[in-house]
Amino acid sequence: MGAKRILILNGPNLNLLGKRETAVYGDKSFEDYLVELKKQFAHVHVDYFQTNVEGELINYLQQSTHDGIILNAGGYTHTSVALRDAVAAIKIPVVEVHLSNIAARESFRHESLLSPVCAGCVFGFGLRSYELALTYFIQ
Questions:
Q1: Confidence grade of residue 104 (pLDDT, cut at 50, 70, 90)
Q2: Domain boundary assignment for the chain
Q3: Which residues are 96's β-sheet partners?
Q4: For the whole model, what pTM was predicted?
Q5: 48 a catalytic residue
Q6: Domain spanning 5-138 has what CATH number?
Q7: 82-112 burial by CB neighbour count: b if 16+ within 10 A, else e?
Q8: DSSP annotation of 107
């Protein structure tokens, strides 16, 4: 059996990591972090896609042939029934990830439409949240 294949799927505004609200999200871009993550987990095949478009996230979920998906849906977490339905419809386990502690933020961020249909959730550990989700998939 070959290396596990994991897809990291990032939603809206995550292309602005390192520039946007650095007090909340940190000052490192996701691309820089991804280089480090791939070195740390060299035995795992990690694919990455980021989009600000809800439908593209849904297409990636539906078309994936990966062993697992790490999904940071950004603001769509709290608003997208369509994205929730896509996660529920696929057979691949999905771990929901957020850099910030969404339960400690504005009240509109407290409810995740995705959590009930995900294998698990990791939030509040900054970029390290991705490492924790990736660890789940390889253990």
A1: low
A2: 5-138
A3: 71, 121
A4: 0.92
A5: no
A6: 3.40.50.9100
A7: ebbebbeeeebbbbbbbbbebeeeeeebeeb
A8: G
Q: Is 12 helix (H, G, I), strand (E, B) or coil?
A: coil
- From 76, 98, 130, 136, active-site residue: 98
- Tokens 């959730």 appear where? 121
Angle at CA of residue 75, ends 126 and 47, nearest 5°? 60
Cα 133 to chain centroid distance, Å, stands at: 9
Q: Name the strand (E) or helix (H) holding 9.
A: strand 5-10
Strands 68-72 and 45-50: what pairing? Answer: unpaired
Q: Considering 25, 33, 60, 130, which one is annotated as catalytic?
A: 25
With cut-offs at 50, 70 and 90, classify the pLDDT of residue 18. confident
Average pLDDT on 75-87 reads: 95
pLDDT band for 8, please (50, 70, 90 cuts): very high
Told to judge if 25 belongs to the known catalytic residues of this protein, a careful annotator would answer yes
**Taking the CA atoms of the chain, what radius of gyration do you get in angstroms?**
14
**Alpha-carbon span 1 to 104, nearest angstrom:** 41
Element (H, E) at 121: strand 120-123
